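Query structure, 212 tokens:
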């Protein structure tokens, strides 16, 4: 069985997730941007008694990659991600300069993920779905057995990811939400990159961007 830990980090209030099976863990979108937040993440891992073995990015916008360099330094992990977001990853320090938020250069990816790939732990697995629109290489991670999605910035509670950033496209995002996420069971829990969790069924009924 897989368990989920969530931490909300950095000035963008980004949700960083730890998915673990009681022994090994996958770190998803490490947004910790200073030493205090790095310490919070590591103490959470210690309390859970788990060891991080994989770093995965849903996408490579600044707020989701601020902790990459620290994760490599402390845990020896480099990110797995979709190759279409590599230019965003490499541009993150420049983005940080624009926002006045220091961002150390990220390590280069250890490898790339695409639709149909699986991120596996002994307690379960996460299926990769390719859901661009917010970012050109955006993926989500779906646990079919337990009915949850780590969704990044695709679908929020009664909202969607913004599409006015480089590589964003509203029509693409809405199409992929409808064809990739809204085909999942209604009780599937969505853990988003910002804000509280929701369910697929709730968003079908109540999301003003997607009704009809």
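Result returned for the query:
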């Amino acid at each position: 069985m897989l368990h989920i830990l969530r931490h909300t980090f950095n000035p963008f209030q980004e949700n960083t997730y730890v998915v673990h099976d009681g022994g090994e863990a996958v770190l998803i979108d490490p947004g910790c941007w200073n030493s205090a937040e790095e310490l919070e993440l590591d103490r959470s891992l210690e309390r859970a008694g788990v060891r991080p073995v994989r770093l995965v990015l849903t996408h490579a916008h600044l707020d989701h990659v601020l902790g990459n360099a620290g994760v490599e330094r402390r845990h020896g992990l480099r990110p797995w991600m979709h190759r279409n977001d590599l230019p965003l990853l490499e541009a993150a320090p420049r983005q940080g300069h624009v926002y006045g938020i220091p961002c150390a250069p990220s390590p280069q990816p250890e490898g790339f993920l695409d639709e149909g790939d699986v991120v596996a732990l002994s307690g379960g697995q996460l299926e990769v779905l390719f859901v661009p629109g917010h970012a050109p290489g955006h993926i989500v991670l779906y646990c079919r057995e337990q009915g949850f999605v780590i969704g990044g910035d695709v679908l929020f509670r009664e909202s969607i990811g913004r599409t006015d950033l480089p590589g964003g496209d509203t029509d693409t995002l809405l199409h992929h939400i409808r064809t990739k996420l809204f085909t999942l069971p209604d009780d599937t829990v969505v853990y988003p990159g910002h804000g509280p969790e929701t369910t697929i069924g709730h968003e079908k009924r109540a999301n003003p961007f997607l009704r009809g």
